[in-house]
Amino acid sequence: MNIVRIFFVGMLVSFLGSLPLGTLNIAAMQIAIGQGVQSAMLFSLGSLLAEMIFVRISLVAMDWVRKQRTLLKLLDWLTVLVVVALAFSSFYTAMQTKPAPNPVLAVALPKLVLGFMMSALNPVQIPFWFGWSAVLFSRKILVPDARQYYLYIAGIGIGTFMGNCIFIFGGQFVAHRIENNQQMVNWIIGGVFIFTAILQLYKILRNKDTLHQIEEKVTNTSN
Fold it and tell me: Model-level pTM?
């Protein structure tokens, strides 16, 4: 029974965690608008694959992850650069007279690979799952067992995909509703990306980056 519970816990936490506006779900929505649902689905599958790998590593190597200080800081800065590039690409797309896909999201890579790469470069999910896994371990909901790990990760993957689908099909709905004004959508998406980049930069400069979030979650869990 506990095995079934950990699957649904992983799915629920992942689904709710994927609903706030973020780089990956907004990118999936923009791909759905500019390149179709199938491309957005493949992008989402790639991104959740990287997320599941992160979670699997964190379950068995939490101490190792915490020691990768240089790598975590590098990923934080790379995230800022990627999000800024997405923002300016969105603004560029919005200024075109004809509907066009975001140049960054339209690169000559399979969408599955693009989603995996963007998710792998996005460290935001590391402290999120680091913290949740630590809480579940401390409350004995999750125990060191291979079957539980795989069901927990499977639930996470399904939950993330369900959350992304809301943005994918929501993006399609919005695009059809305002078919003659997709430039406005791209301006709004570009603004969301700029806000995300500023927020990420603020966290880095205020020592609230990925590394500090992990340390904070570990401290709170141990207390």
Answer: 0.79
